[in-house]
Design a protein that fits this description.
Elements: H1 4-10, E1 13-17, H2 30-42, E2 50-53, H3 66-80, E3 87-89, H4 95-107, E4 112-115, H5 125-138, E5 142-147, H6 149-152, H7 158-167, E6 171-176, H8 181-191, E7 196-199, H9 208-212, E8 216-219, H10 226-237, H11 241-259, H12 266-277, H13 294-305
Parallel strand pairs: 1-2, 1-8, 3-4, 4-5, 5-6, 6-7
Family: Belongs to the DapA family.
GO molecular function: 4-hydroxy-tetrahydrodipicolinate synthase activity; 5-dehydro-4-deoxyglucarate dehydratase activity; N-acetylneuraminate lyase activity
Keywords: Lyase
Length: about 325
């Protein structure tokens, strides 16, 4: 387990929220988890350029049992070793369950954890402070706060985030998912010198958040286009924003396809379908989510066949 200062420094680059591959019987495909972990590391998601986050929202955490999460933590860490920081997704609405998940992450040797506010009931500042302080009392693991406004129903205000950072020393990073770019700017200015602030909205907010001082961006799309995402980050480090623009324009048709859909989890279904098409362990989603339709698969195949950027599966 890394010190808070070490982890704060290492949470940067392409923060990949990993998909969880399921077999046709809905069981976790453990070999698929191993294969995906190796694929991401071999594609450039390493210490200094990225972070792995198993069992987050893109990993279908609401559909996983606590024991499945513990097993996934162990598998990813076994494959990753020290090549890349691994943060275990420990989102839950019950603080006691989060503490149990954090202990699983600690036992697996993970570098830190990602934790959202409690959800189901809309929280307020008191509930959020209570949640994170209770977790921090039970563990010495570094925490990346996940401002998961679409689940918690509350975009954590700048003032509350500042209190969290000041009052909970375990907090080393923030996955800032606010849909408001002007609020992101205020967050970086308020706490960006104390913790690592990461753009939680992914590629659509790049390179703007990088210009504001974000130290990286969160993406599920990197499960299939990791080299593209690493290229974006490396260009941002070099302040070559024209290159970032060029990469994003080339990737735009595929990214637009992932972000389109009729409900909030459509991107996950589409990413899994695309992964399956190129031989990666996408698997199926768990109920109540359904696998992609044949029409969606055909759209994905066309876009993958035409994808102009280098990826391990792309022979162009």
């Amino acid at each position: 387990m890394q010190s808070f200062d070490e982890l704060r420094e290492n949470i940067k680059g392409v923060v990949v929220v990993m998909t969880t591959p399921f077999k046709d019987n809905y069981e976790v495909d453990e070999e698929g988890v191993r294969k995906l972990t190796r694929f991401l590391i071999e594609s450039g998601i390493k210490k200094g350029t990225g972070v792995l986050v198993p069992t987050g929202s893109t990993g279908e955490c609401p559909m996983l049992s606590d024991e499945e999460r513990a097993r996934i933590f162990k598998i990813v860490k076994e494959e990753a070793g020290d090549a890349v920081p691994v943060l275990g997704g420990c989102n839950h609405t019950d603080t006691r369950t989060v503490i149990k998940l954090v202990k699983y992450a600690e036992e697996a040797g993970l570098d830190g954890v990602m934790i959202s506010p409690p959800y189901y009931w809309k929280p307020n500042e008191e509930i959020i402070l209570t949640h994170y302080k209770a977790i921090a009392r039970e563990s010495k693991m570094g925490i990346m706060v996940y401002n998961n406004w679409f689940a918690s129903q509350w975009d954590i205000p700048v003032e509350t985030l500042a209190k969290l950072v000041d009052e909970v020393p375990n907090i080393v990073a923030l996955k800032e998912n606010t849909p408001y770019i002007e609020k992101f700017w205020k967050v970086v200015n308020a706490i960006g010198d104390k913790i690592s602030v990461i753009n939680g909205s992914g590629e659509p907010h790049e390179p703007y958040t990088a210009l504001m001082g974000a130290r990286g961006f969160v993406t599920g799309e990197a499960c299939i286009i990791p080299q593209t995402c690493v290229a974006i980050y490396q260009a941002e480090i070099q302040k070559d924003y024209e290159k970032v623009k060029d990469i994003l324009l080339k990737a735009k048709p595929l990214l637009d396809f992932f972000f389109a859909g009729e409900h909030g989890a459509s991107y996950l279904i589409r990413i899994k379908a695309a992964m399956n098409l190129v031989g990666l362990p996408g698997g199926i989603p768990r109920l109540p989510l359904l696998p992609a339709s044949e029409e969606i698969k055909q759209q994905a195949k066309k876009l993958l066949d035409e994808y102009p950027l280098p990826e391990p599966w792309n022979k162009k």
